């Protein structure tokens, strides 16, 4: 079973104050996860989590993570700007972008962020625009498939990200000649992995690569960035990852590969998004309509604009009816109101009997949820609310109003 982090009574109080739909985040859970991650990697002196801002680009959330000792991983100018304004200092910001406008390298250097080069070809542009920084990272792509035992987890050869081993060695050689002093290696080879073996296997590949690269280039390797990719148990029958076991798995490989090669001072970085935040967010929505045709449709006031993953990837998100959690089971589709037939949060899902007016919570929406939202059908973005540690709730982003939708238009007078 998946239990929401909020009780029915708490949620009733919140929905009396804030209209649905909205995203609700759990401060206590966020802090606990951050602490567990730090505990798992406490064996590595320089360990740092650079939270992937793209997962939940909400200042109040980033502040909580900052208080827990995390940095941020940014992918664009505005993410950099937000992080800088939030008081993340240079070494607390990783810039893991791709296909990057040169002006963004210039800004990243201005605020002292660590640049993670996606392509060998980016080196010339970086040199010509921002210049070569003292600390720099390169993103690796081994090609082929990424396998764990007999399972194919992903296909790096089909991924647009990162550079080949030969390119990475060439980039390190040139960057060193151009004045770079400290180096990092980064890779993201599989997404939403629900296994404790992903990071240790990735670490083995990157640590072996690191030994070879240092041997061939003589660079001072400062860090290895395992990036994101640790998943969560979206389905109740899936077993949650054990971050302590993951940390211990990486430590074992570190001691087998890096320490004997004289690289026992290398810092481990992570750029987790989903693992840090997904379980600590709920999309709260109310049932507006019921429709019986060839199926039973339950129409709710949220739609794919609030949570794109089910419509985009067919991703499973568990749903709880807060008003009738133990009702008689029915097979239904839970749908939004977009003029798109993929606007469905659940298809042929067995759920307890649902009535108009019931409050449903869609689980695990804390990462890549609100942030992937859009405005199709002139739908307005929802609010975000934080359930604070003391049990009170606080609006951390208001919902959009029509004025916001019209704000960027010319030749249209909203006031008329
Ligand atoms: C460069 C980079 N780092 C980290 C992440 C975070 O990944 P996840 O949320 O799966 O941990 C992403 C996600 O897209 C990414 O592109």
From TrEMBL:
The keyword Protein transport does not apply. One of its GO terms (molecular function) is diaminopimelate decarboxylase activity. CDD domains: PLPDE_III_DapDC. InterPro entries: Ala_racemase/Decarboxylase_C (IPR009006), DAP_deCOOHase_LysA (IPR002986), De-COase2_N (IPR022644), Orn/DAP/Arg_de-COase (IPR000183), PLP-binding_barrel (IPR029066). Residues 30-277 form the Orn/DAP/Arg decarboxylase 2 N-terminal domain. The modification N6-(pyridoxal phosphate)lysine is found at residue 54. It holds the Pfam family Orn_Arg_deC_N. It comes from the Bacteria. Its cofactor is pyridoxal 5'-phosphate. One of its GO terms (biological process) is lysine biosynthetic process via diaminopimelate. Keywords: Decarboxylase, Lyase, Pyridoxal phosphate. SUPFAM superfamilies: Alanine racemase C-terminal domain-like, PLP-binding barrel. Transmembrane segments: none annotated. The keyword Lipid biosynthesis does not apply. The active site is at residue 339. This is Diaminopimelate decarboxylase. The gene is lysA.
